[in-house]
Design brief:
The protein is of the alpha+beta class. The chain has 3 domains: 10-105; 109-214; 220-457, Aminoglycoside 3'-phosphotransferase, Chain: A, domain 2, CATH 3.90.1200. The protein has helices at residues 10-23, 108-120, 175-185, 222-229, 250-271, 279-299, 307-322, 362-365, 372-386, 394-412, 420-441, 447-457, and strands spanning 39-49, 56-65, 72-81, 92-96, 99-103, 123-124, 127-131, 143-145, 153-157, 161-165, 168-169, 194-202, 205-214, 220-221, 275-277, 327-329, 341-343, 349-351. Helix 6 packs antiparallel against helix 7. It is globular and about 70 Å long.
């Protein structure tokens, strides 16, 4: 690895720009779908391997301009070879001056370099590779790119570690590193232990670019597990790793997941500051929910028949605040759903991906919020699983929702359903977001959130 000074890299980016304009919008993690990329502004270009060898490697932070403004900043790891092997054909970006450039995360060698840099706590140009004190990172682990669709890119190293590289990045403290570190310090065992991270220092600002954690071998994510269980009666089938006897019932896992969520919330409340939300704090929150509803109704006409009923969800919360009710706000997961949970072969639930909703500003993602926002996200996720079945299984979702809330109450002593006004407001806000997303990206899925919209507009809390 070349210990080079930071280079602005205009020549490299000038050469790659025509290729990146075509390649970037095709990537799953590219946020600006539908708008052409008009140009690039480099933040930092760092040479990790010099071009004199058979492989060159550059780490790139670059703003991709779309329309007005600088555009989102993306993290790229770009390698070049004279000839691209057939197994890397899918990673190809294009050719410049006889060299083939490609997404280096598909190549084991560059992926090895990243973990070795964390292990040795290297500093290269703008990049800072850090290891958690006491973390044992052995050399020579075999890397493999995770091919599942996600908004970032992940590489596993044997069955030992997983490194998530954030693709759309911002300067500042990222909760995807901050919260797992805080939970580990607090002794919470509901997250895979962080072992290191990749950062950068550019223009006096710190950036978090990637997080390495212990890999949970044999784990299955909650979404896949729920899809196996939706609509099934106990005893109809068996799930690998489940040894409870008497067949499999996902509602029992939902209860256990509620307990895991509550343990994470309690640990975060101990580890990081909390706040009290009264009328002054709730009013902007309610106004934001109402504004999102108004924008959604304009964007998706299917919402119009339910607008009045949905407004009452937010109005009722504002009325409670005006009467003097207060709520506790704390750090939360911020984007909790079944796909953000892992069940180990032994049946233990872990929470992952604490980045929050990537489309929201970083400062907003780090603000204390009512813990029920996470609960509402999980309740919506049960509905999604239920309506993925044929035929849909709303009673299955209702049983899972009830079990999850009961499990949460077993740890905290407070069932989220005992604060129905707050829960309804957050679940309504989430369902409205889902309607807009599905209308824009997956119209076939639009009936799923619309079914919740009908229930929430009628003030039915199943």
């Amino acid at each position: 690895m070349a210990d080079t000074a930071l280079r602005p890299g205009p020549d490299l980016l000038t050469s790659l720009a025509p290729l990146l304009r075509e390649w970037l919008p095709r990537q799953r993690w590219f946020a600006g779908k539908g708008l052409p990329v008009t140009g690039f502004t480099p933040v930092a270009v760092t040479e990790l391997l010099p071009p004199s060898g058979r492989l060159s490697l550059h780490h790139i932070l670059v703003h991709a301009r779309q329309g007005t403004g600088p555009g989102d900043c993306y993290q790229l790891l770009v390698a070049a070879r004279d000839t691209l092997p057939p197994h890397l054909a899918g990673a190809r970006i294009g050719e410049v001056d006889g060299h083939t450039y490609y997404d280096a995360l598909h190549d084991p060698w560059p992926a090895e370099i990243l973990l070795e840099a964390i292990r040795s706590e290297a500093r290269v140009g703008a990049l800072r590779f850090s290891r958690v004190p006491g973390a044992d990172i052995p050399p020579d682990l075999v890397p493999r790119l995770v091919t599942a669709e996600q908004s970032n890119s992940s590489v596993t190293y044997g069955d030992t570690f997983i490194l998530k590289l954030l693709r759309r990045v911002l300067p500042g403290v990222n909760p995807d590193l901050e919260l797992p570190l805080a939970l580990t310090r607090e002794g919470c065992d509901r997250v895979p232990d962080p072992v290191g991270w990749i950062g950068a220092e550019v223009g006096g600002e710190a950036w978090v670019l990637g997080v390495a954690q212990k890999y949970v071998a044999g784990a299955v994510d909650g979404w896949e597990l729920a899809l196996q269980g939706v609509g099934k009666e106990p005893g109809e089938f068996e799930v690998w790793g489940y040894d409870g006897g008497g067949g499999y019932d996902f509602a029992e896992d939902a209860r256990a997941l509620g307990r895991a969520t509550a343990e994470v919330h309690q640990a975060l409340a101990r580890a990081l500051p909390t706040a009290t939300l009264g009328q002054a704090q709730l009013q902007p929150l309610v106004e934001g929910m109402t504004e999102r509803l108004e924008a959604a109704v304009q964007a998706v006409p299917s919402l119009r028949p339910y607008e009045v009923g949905l407004r009452t969800a937010f109005g009722a919360l504002g009325e409670l605040a005006a009467e003097g009710h207060t709520w506790v706000a704390q750090r939360i997961h911020g984007d909790l759903h079944l796909g953000q949970c892992l069940r180990t072969p032994g049946g233990k639930w872990l929470l992952i991906d604490f980045e929050g909703e990537p489309a929201r500003p970083l400062a907003e993602r780090r603000m204390p919020q009512p813990a029920v926002r996470d609960v509402a996200g999980m309740l919506r996720s049960f509905d999604y699983a239920a309506y993925s079945a044929e035929p849909p299984a709303p009673q299955w979702a209702a049983a899972c929702r009830a079990a999850y809330c009961s499990g949460y109450a077993e740890v905290t002593g407070a069932d989220p359903r005992t604060d129905p006004v707050l829960l309804r407001a957050y679940e309504t806000d989430k369902a409205i977001y889902e309607v807009v997303y599905e209308a824009r990206h997956r119209p076939d899925w639009l009936p799923v959130p619309l079914s919740a919209i009908r229930r929430l507009a009628a003030h039915e809390l199943t």
